[in-house]
Amino acid sequence: MAEKPTTVEVKILDKDYLVACPQEEQEALLQAARHLDTKMREIRSSGKVFGTERIAVMAALNITHDLLERDTMSDAASSILNAMDEKLDGALGDASGR
Q: 3-class DSSP state for residue 98?
């Protein structure tokens, strides 16, 4: 049976937010809030974006881009490893046939 969500207070850009979250996910939520706060502070300190809403949207876009790029890199790394594995199998197959 899933635990009833509890309310967790997070602070982002000096503003408090109450978020319902299951007990077992609280640390992940706090980590996500710290990451978002850091990204939003970076954007705000650049002086190029004004307004909390715009800063939040830019932070969301940057974080999403980073995640999508990481997924793409993982797919590329997986493809490279598979190709290397096939070449290794082929080379070992050739060597054992001698």
A: coil
Per-residue pLDDT tens over the stretch 21-67: 999 999 999 999 999 999 999 999 999 889 999 999 999 999 998 88
Element (H, E) at 15: strand 15-21
pLDDT > 50? residue 68: yes
Residue 1 has pLDDT above 60, yes or no: no
* Rounded-to-integer distance, Cα 10 and Cα 59, Å: 17
Contact of 59 with 36, CB cutoff 8 Å: yes
Helical (H) or strand (E) element with 37? helix 26-46
As a whole number of angstroms, the distance between CA 51 and CA 39 comes to: 14
Which structural domains are found in the chain, ordered by start? 6-96 (3.30.160.880)
